[in-house]
Design a protein that fits this description.
single chain, alpha+beta, 3-stranded antiparallel sheet, two-stranded antiparallel ribbon, about 30% strand, binds zinc ion
Length: about 90
C-alpha cells in the first residue's frame, strides 16, 4: 500500500519524499506509518526512521547494528536497488 504524505526531505540526500510504501502484501494489515517505523529512501537507499508520521531521521549506528540480518527493511533496500538497476 502506498501512503501519500506531506513532502519532507531525506535527511541523507535531501531528496523530496512524499510517499511511503508498506512492504506488506496483505492490504488489510497495511497502515499509514507511525513513529518508530522504518523506511528506505528510494533515491539513496538510506534506512530512515519516522519520528512522527511526517518526519524522518537517519537510523543510528546502534539501531543499525541491532537489526537482524533478515529484517524486512533489507529486502526493501534490495528491491529498490534491483528496480534502480533495471531502469539504468
Ligand atoms: Zn535519500
Amino acid at each position: 500500500m502506498i501512503t501519500r504524505l506531506p513532502a519532507t526531505s531525506c535527511p541523507v540526500c535531501q531528496s523530496t519524499l512524499d510517499a511511503h510504501g508498506d512492504e506488506l502484501d496483505d492490504r488489510s494489515a497495511a497502515r499509514a506509518p507511525r513513529a518508530g517505523d522504518y523506511s528506505v529512501c528510494v533515491y539513496c537507499l538510506a534506512i530512515l526512521v519516522f519520528t512522527d508520521p511526517h518526519t524522518l531521521r537517519v537510523l543510528t549506528a546502534a539501531e543499525r547494528a541491532a537489526l537482524p540480518a533478515d529484517d524486512p527493511v533489507f529486502e526493501v533496500q534490495a528491491t529498490i536497488r534491483r528496480f534502480q538497476a533495471a531502469r539504468n
